[in-house]
């Protein structure tokens, strides 16, 4: 199946005699009228034009709410006053065939884009929400106190609050395009998604007419420092990090990895970039433990720290592969979609050392200027194992990569003190 | 269907002529041999004795790995050196009927508990992993510098690292027991879980013989300060917080709520408690935005901040209900299970103001001594709206709850500066 957008089809508001039917989705069409809304409602089954439903894995909690009698299954969201605080797009990328396959670019503006369908009784829910926030990070306050950052009342307050626009984005997968990204056929993708999840959503294999899947997985959140419209202007300096969730470090500050230090360093870079007239972007994806989940991650920690010879950089990837079967399950292939949703064409400063992220972004047609890595003094001692292993594996670093003997000698703490 | 454990059945290692078959699960049995392993493998379908598969929602990424040709579908985890760093249980609660229904108490020790079945070729995976970590939080370093905390080299280092034991736990639902918690029949629970997720896992309704479900949702992580065995000793002072994920605050420090301040305050209390001979516990559940997900949460933020009269405490719950249909979808009914897995019988200091959490814990038979709320100086100005709304709604507070006029006058920032 091709990832080219098919020829326009007209919306049929009443596809079945005697009532409303499911509206067609023509993925990648240039206008919402041609594209059609994503309808994942559970209240009126005949309206559904997707596999799965809204809110990712939280649909399971929604079900519990109905089971407990706390939520009416007929509830429709009252979307009064919920519209985005900032206009994002539309950008040419939204209808560039195959450029966006894992989110709905019109997902933030369903109230306006699909007003007619909403008025006709379709339960259309936003899959993206855009709001404003003041974010206060202790590391930013520290940078302010040490003079690395300065308050300007626009991007950063005296109290250390960074003023951001942020967006939460649920996954919306157009299966032909997702299959194309992973280099397999759509039929294979559907079969494997069904079989390897233990039989989730048989419609994946029985309903090839439904091309859109709302998978029960975590989505992503973007934090924008400066004017969101500037993200689409290649002449405005863009500092960006695409960050994958690591709860143990991001929230609890575990010293075995550099996740939170990288994130807060990127935020500092984003603030500085925005203050010198640029714009900053942090995209945060729910892909805990390289998308292996935290149980597997902790099993790997134990295997690393107990192996003969101790936790050395030269065995770093091998231990993950023994337990998980792969070194990494994050698959950055879908990650650039959010950048195209924001209209990004050029990233001037990419705060990341990951070659997988770099290749995915560059391969999707976004120009990348400099790569900015984490300063040495922010790397916890125990995280040296991970850093050196990654550098030797070809991750970006401004200096030389460690050699075999250095990898053997880069050793983390053992489990017992 | 009753939640009492049925009479013991014997393990049948070969239930089908000509090959191994699925092993029975007798939920709540006193020994692993009687209970039987949870087999959610996708490599040998005839061995499966559950609905769903491992790793929660990350099974979708596992499927992508297979689709991309990166992972062999026959891969079995090599569990060498992955065993828990600390022994948890077994405790009497593990076989107290109906006490634990949403996790597998034997999930951390499958290698030992089900050695015979593993040797017989069953692919049995841990659903719990236990490891050690050093966690370094800026707020803890600040408390150390200000003299509120002191380093002792045992619980807290000079550098501000707290030494913890931590466990990641995947959900394993015994459906008869889950239904009982929510006061509905098992048949209703199964039907609603199927229908309200848009048709996820038809086995929920077609395979009533499979009583265990591995739902594709986030699990939880526990952080233990001090000796994990002390959690089960009601004479050792236990300081505890059960925290629900809020990425915007926990990671990014958004000032609209008190999530991270509450969490870091609890960690400070846990460290102090452990240092005076007690033990501390933080349980972190992946229930973003009251288990409504982040898109809904951000929609509610906009509705709150744009409503006529501004973002006032008296409208706080109403705005969530308009958008989501409920005020809260977290359902603390399953939350105490993790406490029973840890053997907890008494919490001396519960760091929380939530009545829902308090009621769920106390209702599950755990004694609660004092409740500890967040100090006023840690509440961000914009989060006053949430705090006052909660206090007026009956959440715990040592002082008087705000009256109607105070609620009307507790006002947050508007969207436009």
From TrEMBL, chains A, B:
Enzyme class label: hydrolase
Domain annotation GTP cyclohydrolase II: ranges: 229-372
Domain GTP cyclohydrolase N-terminal: 10-196
Any one Gene Ontology BP term: riboflavin biosynthetic process
Region (Disordered): 396-417
Skewed-composition ranges (Basic and acidic residues): 405-417
Single GO MF descriptor: GTP binding
Keyword terms: GTP-binding, Hydrolase, Nucleotide-binding
Top-level taxon of the source organism: Bacteria
EC number per UniProt: 3.5.4.25
One of the Pfam families matching this protein, by short name: GTP_CH_N
Protein's UniProt name: GTP cyclohydrolase II
Species, as recorded: Ramlibacter lithotrophicus
